[in-house]
Design a protein that fits this description.
The protein is α+β, with helices and mostly antiparallel strands and 140 residues long. It has one domain. It is built from 4 helices and 3 strands. A 3-stranded antiparallel β-sheet has the order 1-2-3, with helices on one face. A hairpin with a 6-residue loop joins strand 1 and strand 2. The longest helix is centred in the first third of the chain and has 43 residues. Keywords: Membrane, Transmembrane, Transmembrane helix.
């Protein structure tokens, strides 16, 4: 009778499986966090670059209206260059600063994060992030 109990206590055949079950949720959480942070960083960087390049492209215009049109058309046609950004999720706000000195343009972009891994992770940890906003200013 004592022999089967001693054999059961000293048997280590399932130790690896038990350790794997204990470590797996932590490992998957870390991988998911890395993916979410990477997606957030890629979207934020692409949004900032798009705002800066739209402001720079407006410098080719002569009048205020032409500069605003150039910036808006650059944002509309930038889908192939910025693959992390969904073109239907970018909301531009272009402000011409002609009353202040120096004159310039401010391009602000808001990005809707609905349906992304960032929104999913935000709901999981209780950190509500629904939009991401970046802007760029260029003085003329």
């Amino acid at each position: 009778m004592k022999r089967p109990i001693r054999t059961f206590i000293t048997d280590e055949t399932g130790a690896t499986a038990v350790e794997f079950v204990l470590v797996l949720p932590i490992l998957l959480s870390m991988v998911f966090g890395i993916i979410c942070f990477g997606q957030y960083f890629a979207i934020a960087n692409s949004l900032q670059q798009l705002a800066a390049e739209a402001a720079r492209s407006s410098a080719m215009g002569i009048s205020t209206a032409e500069r605003q049109t150039l910036a808006a058309s650059f944002i509309t046609n930038a889908g192939a260059r910025f693959t992390f950004l969904g073109p239907d999720k970018v909301v531009p706000t272009i402000t011409m600063l002609s009353e202040t000195e120096p004159h310039g343009i401010q391009v602000s972009l808001s990005y809707d994060l609905q349906g992304s891994a960032v929104e999913l992770a935000g709901g999981f940890i209780g950190f509500e992030v629904s939009t991401l906003t970046r802007s760029s200013y260029l003085a003329y």
